[in-house]
Amino acid sequence: MSLPADSPALPDFSRGHNGLLPAIAQDADNGDVLMLAWMNETAWRQTLETGKATYFSRSRNSIWCKGETSGHVQEVVEARIDCDADTILLRVRQAGAACHDGYRSCFYRTLSADSKVQINAEVLVDPDSVYKK
Amino acid sequence: MSLPADSPALPDFSRGHNGLLPAIAQDADNGDVLMLAWMNETAWRQTLETGKATYFSRSRNSIWCKGETSGHVQEVVEARIDCDADTILLRVRQAGAACHDGYRSCFYRTLSADSKVQINAEVLVDPDSVYKK
């Protein structure tokens, strides 16, 4: 599966359901996993061209530049793909909060074995002030 | 979307294609994203019960305890879910290499805007010695 270092390579969008691959956004500075969203080839190309993380919204069925409403954009520092080229990892600089609930990361809930939930972070921004004004 | 801290919660497998949700494995010690695989509810429950990351292999169409062949198990330190409960984040202690290509992380390829590839890591183990003996 390995490719020579100088070969061209792209994510293999044919491997995704409906041509969508999972894309993980990771904080380039502290390594926190911020969110997972989905990309089609258009979103991927737009991400590379603009340097801003751009996804495909499955609920809205459209391309979505993260932060276009909230201002909470993700500046892409680096893009990686996994060994079988069906998952994308973006290392980003996140403005504000990645999560629509106002947390910096969408993964603000920790589950224990008995399915109890603990909130592992503080709310960073009031979601109402960002999304409902 | 937020839940009270004491409420039970599980990943919502009904939101995944074929009941499968993406599960990210992250190194609990240094924050490296190691791999992404898929979980159904059985894999999720087995992961919580055994403390070892267990996925659903789409190619083999079966439950797969990571490391059962290679010995490269992932001891789960913590499980998180995202805001809409359709992505799982496992913080793990990885034995050996997560990647079948012998790298510690599957994300050993960095792509530049012109789609050139750079290998960003060293091979940790010889894959032939692990998977083909």
Automatic annotation (TrEMBL), chains A, B:
Entry-linked Gene3D superfamilies: Phosphoribosyl-AMP cyclohydrolase (3.10.20.810)
In which compartments does the protein localize? Cytoplasm
Q: For binding Mg(2+), which residues are annotated in this chain's numbering?
A: D82, D84, D86
The protein's matches in InterPro entries, at most eight in alphabetical order, are given as: PRA-CH, PRib_AMP_CycHydrolase_dom, PRib_AMP_CycHydrolase_sf
The cofactor binding remark recorded in the entry reads: Binds 1 Mg(2+) ion per subunit.
Indicate the segments forming the Phosphoribosyl-AMP cyclohydrolase domain, all copies.
35-108
GO MF: magnesium ion binding; phosphoribosyl-AMP cyclohydrolase activity; phosphoribosyl-ATP diphosphatase activity; zinc ion binding
GO CC aspect terms: cytoplasm
Entry keyword Ribosomal protein: no
Obligatory cofactor(s): Mg(2+); Zn(2+)
Pathways per UniProt: Amino-acid biosynthesis; L-histidine biosynthesis; L-histidine from 5-phospho-alpha-D-ribose 1-diphosphate: step 2/9; Amino-acid biosynthesis; L-histidine biosynthesis; L-histidine from 5-phospho-alpha-D-ribose 1-diphosphate: step 3/9
Chain residues that bind Zn(2+): C83, C99, C106
Q: Which GO terms describe its biological process?
A: L-histidine biosynthetic process
Q: Which reaction does it catalyse?
A: 1-(5-phospho-beta-D-ribosyl)-ATP + H2O = 1-(5-phospho-beta-D-ribosyl)-5'-AMP + diphosphate + H(+); 1-(5-phospho-beta-D-ribosyl)-5'-AMP + H2O = 1-(5-phospho-beta-D-ribosyl)-5-[(5-phospho-beta-D-ribosylamino)methylideneamino]imidazole-4-carboxamide
Alphabetical keyword list: Amino-acid biosynthesis, Cytoplasm, Histidine biosynthesis, Hydrolase, Magnesium, Metal-binding, Zinc
EC id: 3.5.4.19
Q: Which family does it belong to?
A: In the N-terminal section; belongs to the PRA-CH family.
What functional role does this protein have?
Answer: Catalyzes the hydrolysis of the adenine ring of phosphoribosyl-AMP.
Complex and partners? Homodimer.
Protein's name according to its UniProt entry: Phosphoribosyl-AMP cyclohydrolase
Q: Which organism is it from?
A: Roseimaritima multifibrata
